[in-house]
Amino acid sequence: PEYKTGVVVTTTGSFYTVKVEKETFVCKVKGSFKLKGIRTTNPVAVGDIVSIEVGEDNNVQNAGWITKIHPRSNYIIRRSSNLSKQAHILAANIDRALLLVTVNYPVTSTTFIDRFLSTAEAYNVEAAIVFNKTDIYDASDMEEMQKLRKIYEGVGYRCFEISALANKGFEALMDYIRHGVTLVSGHSGVGKSTFINGIIPDAGLKTAAISEAHNTGMHTTTFSTMLPLSDAEEGYIIDTPGIKGFGTLEFEKEQVGHFFPEIFRLSKECRFNNCTHIHEPGCSVLRAVEDGTIASSRYRSYLSIFRDGDEDSKYRSAY
Ligand code: GDP
Ligand code: ZN
Q1: How far is the CA of 191 from the centre of ligand 1 (A)?
Q2: Bridge-partner residues for 7, per DSSP?
Q3: How far are the Cα atoms of 6, 94, 228 from residue 47, in angstroms, in the given order?
Q4: Cα of 134 from ligand 1 centre, angstroms
Q5: What is the CB < 6 Å shell around ligand 1?
Q6: Which of the four, 76, 103, 164, 276, has the lowest number of CB atoms within 10 Å?
Q7: What is the per-residue pLDDT across 277-314, written as a single tens digit (0 to 9) for each?
């Protein structure tokens, strides 16, 4: 048989669409794939790099079987339900995550931003902030945006300013997302759909076409889709309908400081190596908060996530 390597661009439960350069194959899974230690409802996720065995299936052109999942650089999971121990893999091999925010329309809180960024750190996904609706910012909104930019660029996150409605500011952002797989998130109302339709004019058409071909009678919202940016670009956008961000993630409260890069960097200078940066003497993080090197809003977010951990000794992300 003939073997090819491609990327999974849609999943519907039993069928997977695999893109191999310009060609698309409709595949089923051959054999069973498991993640260590977690039971998952789907063996294969969008973004997975897979080997396929090309084969003819009754009436289906370009049919094949997925025979191998290549090692993932990361993956995003969501627990299927509170009762079940099963997890759903939302996407794999994400290169970056964009958080669309607006200063006032609606307001995106720094707590929300910091929860998103720390979850991205935990998943080992690069994150960036996109300020949208800059066309309607007044002087004080602009000032607020500059303040936030200073904080987040200071930590090391890239920031972009756009108006999705006016197609403004897309060039720099497109340069950033041109290659690889980009997850787009944001509060509802910040302009996520406007943005995606702005950079992918036929995004709506493409999703409709996919659901007609493969998702007949199924709830498309439970499945992820990767939208190719355009034929000319190599990149993809992942928009997971109904999911605001990253799915559920749990981590030990002692780890929370690892996911705030500026806190993590300074924690090596704390007197105690298990310092929680809350009350300990000789804490370099507390000193930096006092002298303004660490933004107080960032420290407040750290505390709030840390204290979430008190409930059942785990931090549960709000996404
Ligand atoms: P979503 O819920 O994040 O997908 O948000 P939508 O894309 O549906 O946008 C919500 C509202 O904000 C709509 O009325 C859009 O027209 C508006 N909107 C989106 N982007 C912009 C922008 O850049 N500037 C302005 N002024 N309005 C925008
Ligand atoms: Zn400390």
Answers
A1: 4
A2: 19, 49
A3: 10, 7, 12
A4: 11
A5: 132-133, 135-136, 163-165, 186, 188-194
A6: 276
A7: 999 999 999 999 999 999 999 999 999 988 876 654 44
